[in-house]
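Researcher: Structure prediction, please.
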Amino acid sequence: MTADERTPDLDEIGRVVQLYVDGFQGGMDKLREAFHEDAWILALDAEGGFSKDLISDRFERWAASHRQVSGRVIQVTQAGEVASVLLGFDNTENLADSWVDVLALIKLDGTWKITHKSAVHSSRADWAKP
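Model: Predicted structure follows.
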């Protein structure tokens, strides 16, 4: 089985991930489109501090940040209507302040939505950091 056969929705999954990345440029609507309303984030910062929130509680702050970021898709795995994306979430103004995310997605009523985000500061991401 080829990679294309294993990930038939690669383009649509990539589009949803890009909505998330683009949301940091004032795109509240893009964040709402990318994430399921009940999606959670669990994260470890550079010092090892742990946080968890409903992602929707962060939308306003994220969209207002206008943080210069780019998404670096490292790996996509799809099994039917569930997928995961390993994403380098790179701060283009300061690579040392980047993150690595594992995004879980589910296809609901024909539409991919991010349902969970686990994130670590890039200093804790070993080989996946920029």
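Model: The beta strands are 35-44, 50-54, 69-79, 82-91, 99-108, 111-121.
Researcher: Thanks, that helps.
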